[in-house]
Design brief:
It is built from 8 helices and 6 strands. It has 294 residues and is of the alpha+beta class. A hairpin with a 2-residue loop joins strand 1 and strand 2. Helix 1 crosses helix 3.
């Protein structure tokens, strides 16, 4: 074999170079597509949330003679922070509840303060029943303990839609995509039917649209179990879903019963929280607005 036969011809390298360039361009396009998808999800969250906040701002501006929407937003933010609830919840309650009587010093008048329902089903020590984040966080941990997984989320029913409230072990793409759910998912079926729903294999289940299925699988979830949170009147107040890195065979009777007890405890607590803590936040907002008028 001669020396010139050992030297590759320049044209022999061109296909490899072109291939590497194509692969780099493909990788760049893939990254850009993922970035754009995340931006779309984030914009969708803002689009779904903003009209309700804007409606509440308009109500408050007209009711209290506030100078602008920013002043109304500041009042709702202050009331939400003092009550340890989301501003979005305060806004929805402002828009939904009949306003105080003209010139009334109290929005709701004198009303009894019912004690918080017991939360012993969560299997933890003392909880601050008025702290929504603390209670829902404990409820999520309890469900994940029963179902033996580390991924899950809590959604609350709001105007016929499930709104993401707490989550753990799930990526941003997942929580943005499912920030508001009113479509074809396991959690929506649990909310509508009032029964626990098990998705044994996400990849094979007809219960998801293609985009939702892809987002769930990308999060590392192969099986899902959704538990409706029902109060004493069997009204569904929310859903807790556990996500599993492997397909599910379902749960035995003991686990299903433990999940049911958790469901009733938290559903009853949500009902109490909305009748007590959320209304207290509105009363506080009313007092803040009246103080501003002086």
């Amino acid at each position: 074999m001669t020396d010139h036969q050992l030297v590759p011809h320049p044209h022999d390298e061109q296909p490899t170079s072109r291939q590497e360039g194509t692969e780099r361009a493909t990788d760049q396009l893939t990254v850009r597509a993922q970035q754009l998808q995340e931006q779309v999800f984030e914009l969708e969250v803002q689009v779904r949330a903003r009209p309700k906040i804007a409606l509440a701002e308009g109500v408050l501006v007209e009711r209290y003679g506030l100078p602008d929407a920013d002043a109304a937003f500041a009042l709702m933010r202050q009331a939400s922070q003092r009550a340890n609830i989301k501003l979005h919840q305060v806004a929805v309650a402002v828009a939904r509840m009949p306003g105080p009587a003209q010139g009334a010093s109290l929005w709701f008048g004198e009303r009894p303060q019912d004690p918080a329902p017991p939360l012993t089903a969560l299997g933890v020590g003392t909880l601050d029943a008025r702290n929504q984040g603390e209670v829902l966080g404990a409820a999520l941990r309890r469900v994940l303990e029963i179902t033996s997984t580390h991924m899950g989320n809590v959604q609350l029913v709001e105007d016929g839609t499930l709104r993401m409230e707490r989550h753990t072990g799930l990526p941003r793409q997942f929580t943005d995509h499912f920030a508001f759910v009113d479509g074809k998912t396991a959690c929506s079926r649990a909310a509508v039917g009032g029964n626990q729903v098990t998705v044994k294999e996400v990849a094979l289940s007809p219960g998801f649209d293609d985009i939702s299925r892809r987002v769930i699988l990308s999060a590392g979830s192969r099986g899902v179990h959704s538990v409706p949170l029902m109060d004493d009147a069997r009204t569904v107040r929310g859903v807790i879903s556990s996500h599993h890195p492997h397909p599910l065979d379902g749960f035995d009777r003991a686990r299903l019963q433990a999940l049911h007890r958790t469901s009733r405890a938290i559903g009853t607590w949500i009902d109490w929280h909305q009748r007590t803590v959320v209304l207290d936040a509105l009363e506080d907002l009313h007092q803040l607005a009246l103080a501003r008028q002086k």
